[in-house]
Amino acid sequence: ADNYVAWLPTGLTASITQKAITISGVVANDKVYDGTVAAAVSYDSLAGKIPGDAVTLTLGTASFATKDTGTAKPVTASAYSIAGKDASNYTLAQPTGLLTASITPNPITISGVVASDKVYDGTDAAAVTYDSLVGRIPGDTVTVTAGPAYFATKDTGTAKTVTVFCSFTGKDAGNYTTLLPTGLTASITQKAITIS
């Protein structure tokens, strides 16, 4: 060996390719109906990231297949990206697999409900009026029919309890749940009779 001098090779090159990382623990979140297909997802971590590297996940977009209520509705997530000084060393795989979540009905209330007094007519039927629907998403087609309504009894009295039932119609009615008005009262006054 003493008879030789080693000349180390120079000019060698090689590539360092990006490391694939994935988003682990991706879950689509349930929501209350809001009239849009927008969805939200959460995740646990970036799987495959080298400890100590500065890489953060920028959340992309997620959407339900339709805006309407339902359980286990498909959710599509895309356009997720990574940032940070070491992000260029990685390639991010978009979430895959079937994500599902539920859209639950939106509570809707009837405001300004008033039960009307009446003259005794031998029935417990009552009449009610209302001002508006509170909680309806602008642009949704939902109408309400306030009634039927009933007094507790058919007999005369003041501040008698009135129970009202309501029905909703329209192409978006199924996306809402009804909060029926309570605490309604009205009077049944005596009916005048004459001797003929």
Distance between the termini: 143 Å
The low-pLDDT segments are: none
Largest sheet: 5 strands, mixed
Helix and strand sequence: EEEEEEEEEEEEEEEEEEEEE
Helix residue percentage: under 10%
Shape category: rod-shaped
Secondary structure: number of strands: 21
What this model shows, in words?
By secondary structure, this protein is mainly beta. Helices cover 0% and strands 47% of the residues. The chain is built from no helices and 21 strands. It has a 5-stranded mixed sheet with strand order 14-21-19-18-15, with no helix packed on it. It has a 4-stranded mixed sheet with strand order 3-11-8-7, with no helix packed on it. The protein is rod-shaped and about 145 Å long. The model has no long low-confidence stretch (mean pLDDT 93).
Features of the shown structure:
0% helix, 47% strand, single chain, rod-shaped, mainly beta, four-stranded mixed beta sheet
